[in-house]
Amino acid sequence: MKKTLKFSTILVFALLCSCASSENTATQIYFDTAVTLTADCSDEVLSDAFSLCEKYENKLSRTKKDSEISLLSSGKKDLSADTLEVLKKGLYYSKLSGGKFDITVAPLASIWDFKNEIIPDRDEIAEALKNVDYNSIEIIESSVDTQGKSIDLGGIAKGYVTDKLVRFFKENKANSGIINLGGNIAVFGDRYYNVGIKKPFSDGEISATVRLKNKSVSTSGIYERYFRKDGNLYHHIIDTATGFPAKTDLLSASVIGDASVDCDALSTICLLYGLENAKKLINETENIEAVFIDKDYNVILSDGLILKDGIIELKN
Fold first, then answer.
1. What's the pLDDT tens digit per position in 26-55?
2. Which of 58, 164, 215, 295 is the most core-located residue (most Cβ within 10 A)?
3. Which one, of 30, 94, 89, 37, lies nearest residue 64 by Cα?
C-alpha cells in the first residue's frame, strides 16, 4: 500500500515547449538563483509575483542575516505562519528520512566551501556534527526554540515558494504558465508542457523529457555544486551521518508530484538514499513519481511512469 503524505536545487531544466503568444515572461534573482516566471498575465501581475519571491526570501533565506530563519538560532522566536509552515514541513521530512534530510544541517553546510574548493578538516566536521539534530527543535503554537541549532531550509523552501507562486497566478486569473525557481519547475493551466531533465555534468544536454500538466517536478543532483580534488568528487548533498558528501549511486533524482514543496524535499532524500531505497520510497508514496539517473547515466522510472514515443508520461 502506498503511503499518503501528511502534508500537502540548482538544476536547469530545458523547457521544450513553445510558450503561448499571450504568456508574459521575465527572470530575476532570488534565493541566490535565477527565477523565471512565465504566465498568461499582465506586467503588473508578473511584477507582483516577483515581489512575492522577495517577501519569502526575506523570511526563509539562511544567507539573509535578518530573515526569520537566520534569527532563529539566537533563541526562542515567534514565527509568521508562512515560516512556521515551511519549518514544520522540513521537520516532517527530517523525521521521514530518519535524519538523512535534516533542516539543522546549516553548521555542516557552512563549512563546506564549494566556490573555493575547500575541504574542512575532520575535527571541524566533528564539531559541526554535534550541532546537527532536528530532534532538538521544539514548537509550541507559533513559538519555536531551536536549542541553539541553526536552520537551513535550502532543501525545501524553494519548493514552498513555487507552490505559493502557482496559487498567486491562479488567483490572478492566469490561464497557464511555468515557474522555474532554481530548477523547481511547476506548470499550471489548461495545456501540457514538455520538461527536459538535464544530463548530469553536461552543458545542457537532455537525458529525458517529461510531459506534464498541472504538476511540479524538482531535481536534485550531485553536479549542482561540486569540485574535484585528488581524484575525488565532492558535491553539496551532505550526509549528516558522516559530515561528508553522500556516497550515492545516483547522479540525479527528479521527483514529480502535485506540490513542489514535497518534490523538493523528496528529490534530496532520494539522492541520499541511493537508487534502491529511493525507488522503494517513491513507489510507496501516494501521487509521487520520479525519474532517476544512475552513475552509468541510465534513466530509471518509478512505477507510475511510462516511456511513450520518447516522452515520459504519467500512467494515469
1. 999 999 899 999 999 999 999 999 999 999
2. 215
3. 30
* SS3 call for 100: coil
Number of neighbouring beta carbons within 10 Å of residue 153: 24
Q: Pick one of 3.10.520.10, 1.20.140.10, 3.40.50.11690, 3.30.830.10 as the CATH number of 14-314.
A: 3.10.520.10
How many angstroms separate the CA atoms of 186 and 181, rounded?
A: 9
Nearest to residue 161, comparing CAs of 226, 89, 77?
89
Q: How many Cα atoms occupy the beta-carbon half-sphere of 28 within 13 Å? A: 12
CB atoms within 10 A of CB 166: 22
Three-state secondary-structure class, residue 118: strand
Which residue's entry shows cell 566556490? 115
| Beta carbons of 150 and 160 less than 8 angstroms apart | no
All residue ranges of the chain with pLDDT < 70 are 1-21
Residue 129, burial from CB neighbour count under 10 angstroms (0-12, 13-18, 19+): middle
* Measured CA angle at 302 (ends 301, 304), to 5 deg: 110
